[in-house]
Amino acid sequence: MKRDTEASNKMAQTMKAMKIQKEREDDEAIVRYNREKDQAEFIRQEEERKIKEEKEKETQRLRELQEKAADRQADIDALRAKRAFEQGERDARNRERLAQEKRARLLKELEDARVVQFKEREHRLAGVANNEKAEFLRIL
Q1: Number of H helices, E strands in the chain
Q2: First to last CA, the chain
C-alpha cells in the first residue's frame, strides 16, 4: 500500500507539475498574445500617425503653393495697376501737351491775323492818306 500511495503521490505530483507547467505555458501564451497584439496595435498606430503626418505635410505644401500663387497673382495685379496708372499719367500729359500746342497754335493764328489786319489797316490808311493828299494837291 505504501508503494501504491507513493506511486499515487508521485503520479499526483507529476500531474500537479504538468498542470503547473501547462498553466505557465498558457500564461506565457497569453502574455505573448497580448504582447503581439500590443505590438500590432502600436505598428498600426504608427502607420496611421505616419499617414496623418504625410497628409498634413501634403496639405501644408499645397497651402504654401496656393499662398505662393496668390502672392504672385497679387504682384501681377499690382504691376498691372502700376502700369495702368503710369499709362493714365502719360495719356494725361499727352492730352495736356496737345491742348497747350493747340492753344499756342491758336494764339499764333490770332497774332498772325492781328498782324495781317494791322498791315491791311496801314495799307488802307496809306491809301486814304494818298487819296487825301492827291485831293489836297488837286484842290491847291
Answers
A1: 1, 0
A2: 203
Cα dist. 9→22, 90, 111, 127, 140 in Å?
19, 118, 149, 173, 191
pLDDT (tens digit per residue) in 34-61? 999 999 999 999 999 999 999 999 999 9
Nearest CA to 72 among 80, 86, 83? Answer: 80
Q: Which residues of 66-80 are buried (b: 16+ CB within 10 A; e: fewer)?
A: eeeeeeeeeeeeeee
**Model-level pTM?**
0.47
Q: Give SS3 for 3.
A: helix
* Cell representation of residue 61: 505644401
